[in-house]
Amino acid sequence: MASMACISFLFFLSLAIAATTTAVKQTYIVHMRHDAKPDHFPTHQDWYSSTLQSLSSETQSDSDSDSLSSLLYTYSSAFHGFSASLDPAQAESLLSSPSVVGVYPDTVYTLHTTRTPAFLGLNNDLNLYFHDPHHPLDIDQASHDVIIGVLDTGVWPESASFNDSGMPEIPARWRGQCQSGQDFSPKSCNKKLIGARFFSKGYHMASGGGGALKKHLEVESPRDQDGHGTHTASTAAGSVVSDASLLGYASGTARGMATHARVAAYKVCWTNGCFGSDILAGMDQAIEDGVDVLSMSLGGGSTPYYRDTIAIGAFTAMEKGIFVSCSAGNSGPNKASLANVAPWIMTVGAGTLDRDFPAYAILGNKQRFTGVSLYSGKGMGSKPVGLIYEKGSNGTGNLCLPGSLQPEAVRGKVVVCDRGINARVEKGAVVRDAGGIGMILANTAASGEELVADSHLLPAVAVGRKVGDMIRQYVRSEANPTAVLSFGGTVLNVRPSPVVAAFSSRGPNMVTPQILKPDLIGPGVNILAAWSEAVGPTGLEKDTRKTRFNIMSGTSMSCPHISGVAALLKAAHPTWSPSAIKSALMTTAYVVDNTHSPLRDAAGGELSTPWAHGSGHVDPQKALSPGLIYDISTEEYVAFLCSLGYTVEHVQTIAKRPNITCAKKFNDPGQLNYPSFSVVFANKRVVRYTRQVTNVGAAGSVYEVAISAPPTVAVTVKPTKLAFKNVGDKLRYTVTFVAKKGANLSARNEFGSIVWRNADHQVRSPVAFSWTQI
Q: What's a single GO CC term here (predicted)?
């Protein structure tokens, strides 16, 4: 979040087709009717090249070679079509072709940016917790055959987290490769890191028509110059590494979630972001290579699924049995701020760990406030110095933006900086460059009481809003305010935890309000994982420190936790569909913290809701044996898409089936067999949904329903008991939600749950209620 590696994954650019024919070229993604290829073209690429040649002729291009060079990628799996550099007139011309379904401007996405295995109950002897006396299973051994594809900023292959000691031979079905590039040899891969590729054509085109990459540190190879990709890949499946720490913080043994799974890295993100054309190419290749899990800590905003690059590629992945995990975004605590909300994607929010890094600010009035920090330098000593908080030379000194502080006022003092606008670590660098010797980073209302630790370049303490307000008041009211900062190292068993991170993006789902998102939360605050040695822990160019591990926060960090846990479930249940794995993770998630109280929200300290935490916090041990699952077929997803009012062409863009007619569709998108419920009453008082559950527990299992509902809604479930004779049996139930007459509920939202339970299992589905169309 402090650098590109942890900046919130926000959708910040959508390029529209211009009206003028003289505009410069830009990248477009072209959806073709795959089955319409004329027989005289040997391949689809030949067909696409010919199509571009004809465009050049129509628009009087200088040469055919110019048209051919404009072809960036051809897509065959994640998407049917190609991406190319076109001017607006060419894009308009393509739309008139009967073979073209749609033409979409390229979109820029951004990155959503140890202790966790123990916090999640994942031990090295996990297999002891998952066994059947008749069919014993060693999950570590089984996960050797599971391949996690990570689309991100690349990988630092020399990291000890990708050590392949003891790993068996690479699965024979693997079709990927280790792509050579600048400062990256094919020998960089091994039996752990089995593949590495890079995709930069879309980024090249956006950076000026295919010239050299702008940033001098950025190289044309899978090598990670940013750190984000190495961090996420090692979180998902890093090998066990002893004596890991960030400059002494969080010291101990580091390991990923699925330590014996394989990793394949696909570099699709560059200095200026992650371009949809490159992401689609990476997804296309990962699907062809044979990955089992796709982990994507990146995303955009709310957009229809047929315009969402990630949703389109993920649909094909789902069809081929690939589990797709994506970060929810870092735009919380704002409502309706989610990314990656397609129901075939696991949308992951972030929570805290039971580990903290306390730091202290002692004011001149003897008040001692506790915050957090990962500062690892010499410190500022024990003598109090002047404390300053002011607007500065251009009125933005309180935010500590570059150029906003006056050196004569700051020199030798501790500066109070408001959180927001620019990166947290950059604020510290601004203070240091202006001559300050320390910083108190104070939250505002936007971040509430959430505390995120950073490896600052100068002594710095981050504090919550309430403490920040008291410090600001002290500076304003005291004639000679002073402060001294100190640091407390690493503390474990923090209570309460987990707490939903304030930055974690929230519902409701603005694309399909009848699907509750996010799906769940995982560890995403102050996460220790491997790091690129090409960049310092802050990600700032002026940070020359080198470290093998770094501590970062963001839904970028929670996403690979879920990806790794999904790999373990894939190893334990190789025949389960992505929907089945997703269901197991959701229905077994917990909603109480380690004080046995309901989950809280760091944004304001109040109780959290499913719009923030979804089904709850992931529980890997329980997910291995969920009892019941909600499975969803590809046909059901198509019926869901058809119920959204999309045209047949739009549905074809996502599902890539030429014979789709939408003859079958749901009368309400909420009829999808989803493991959670989002009830939108709008102009009706009664909503009725039917679900089907599959018994994956024991033969002869019987479940009874338990309903939790607000007083404003009557909920009935029929039948109230489900009795399964055999494993694999499927049974249906119907839920009727009735909004009670009376109070004005136009601006209210409520929550509840439906739980199927017996002595061995609690299969829980959260329910969100809205009275207005979102």
A: apoplast
